[in-house]
Amino acid sequence: MESYQFLSYKALAIALGTTVVLFAISALKILSGFGFTIFQVRIQKTMFFAAFVALLIFMLYSSKDGYSIVMFFPWVAFFLSHFFLSIRHRVKRELSFMIYFVTVLGLFFGTAFQAFNLEKIMGLESLLLNGQVTAADYTDRKILVLGPNIRPYAAGMQATPYFDWELSKMQLNKLEYYDNLQQIDKNLRSDTPDVIIDQVGMAPKLFEAVPLFGAEYVDTGQGVYKRKESASN
Hints:
By secondary structure, the protein is an alpha/beta fold. 52% of the residues lie in helices and 8% in strands. The chain contains 10 helices and 5 strands. Helix 1 (9-31) crosses helix 3.
């Protein structure tokens, strides 16, 4: 199964670093066994073993997508809750939890609203639209971008389901398969773009595979193809 990793290891380390560090500290503290009954220690060791098995499954899993991280939630929540509860002083306990909570919220809203320069630190620029990098020819037009730079969409409107190139090319690069070609033709016809911006040299191959669709477009240079009825406007 083909898959694509949207986030780099650096971005994952920043996003999950606080939780992973606290998980490691809490696991070591809990497994030391101080202040717990024998039954509690056995339950904790069982949970730690289950977390280790989940890690092995994740490492061997062919497609490391976001949903595959869900298997860690119960074990991480278990150890983190025990870690905060093990802090005897109430003020320190509440303060520690609030710092962790604010850190998680800060990462979420910081990436969502592009605050604290997190999009550059985590390398998310290619996944974000930048309204300042556009072209007047794309304004208010239905656009299909064949390539990784999705910024032209900020000026126009997305046409077809082919938004992220790393996912789209899994189908578009296999034009020799009839099922793929049939689905591509259906997607292009159901939401026909006014402008095709070709960044990777895919358009000529696509027009050759679907000649009736290609006949509707004219090459305006620099990898930009306009629909004939739109090009005259």
